[in-house]
Design goal:
It is built from five helices and eight strands; from the N terminus they run βαββββαβαβαβα. By secondary structure, the protein is an alpha/beta fold. Helix 1 crosses helix 5 and helix 3 runs parallel beside helix 4. The chain binds guanosine-5'-diphosphate (GDP) and magnesium ion (MG). The site of guanosine-5'-diphosphate has 15 residues, from helix 1.
Length: about 180
């Protein structure tokens, strides 16, 4: 069976743990602990990484990894993405500067991106329509990158699957 590795990254609260749980066939392995960082404003936060498995049929399955979100774990972001077929960058559009958030991840992964299959998922666009998907495309364009930017609700399995399919389609196109 073909088994691919796909990594979800993004700011704390962007929905990495939720997305992996939505797609995983098996109960995902998470390392969430009670949050003691008041600045984060959420009850649980991921200190290590998430892991899930999803059988896509056609003899193909994906191993889903989530990076630890907080920037002090940045050294792990690249380690987790080693050997990955693809990367999904999740953006929380309700944050103060979502375009700057995207740039943080584009910078962290800049050596890998030219050869990495990658998609950007923008969450909470209904509540927060600005910046627009075009604005994200402009940020990518400024770095010479052409990547799909999709609206996503990480709580919906179909949305997360769409992101994974987009990454897999890029991989197939490269073959
Ligand atoms: N109301 C609302 N909540 C959302 C939306 N997208 C994600 N969430 C919530 O945002 C939180 C994301 O947390 P989590 O998955 O732990 O993020 P992580 O830090 O990236 O792992 C979850 O509680 C989701 O239910 C959305 O579009 N609307
Ligand atoms: Mg998490």
């Amino acid at each position: 069976m073909k088994q691919h590795k796909i990594v979800f990254t993004g700011t704390p609260g962007a929905g990495k743990t939720t997305a992996i749980a939505a797609l995983s066939d098996t109960p995902p392995v998470t390392t969430d602990v009670r949050n003691t960082d008041a600045a984060l404003g959420k009850e649980f936060t991921t200190v290590g990484m998430d892991f899930g498995l999803c059988n896509l049929g056609d003899g193909c399955s994906v191993r889903l990894f989530g990076t630890p979100g907080q920037q002090r774990f940045e050294f792990m972001w690249r380690i987790v993405a080693t050997d990955a077929l693809g990367l999904v960058i999740l953006i929380d559009n309700s944050r103060p500067d979502p375009l700057a958030d995207l740039n943080v991840y584009l910078e962290a992964y800049k050596d890998m991106l030219p050869t990495m299959n990658c998609a950007v998922g923008v969450g909470r666009v209904q509540e927060c329509p600005v910046p627009t998907l075009d604005d994200f495309a402009d940020v990518l364009d400024a770095r010479g990158l052409v990547l799909p930017v999709l609206p996503v609700d990480v709580r919906r399995r179909e949305d997360v699957l769409m992101l994974v399919d987009t990454v897999l389609a890029q991989a197939e196109a490269r073959e």
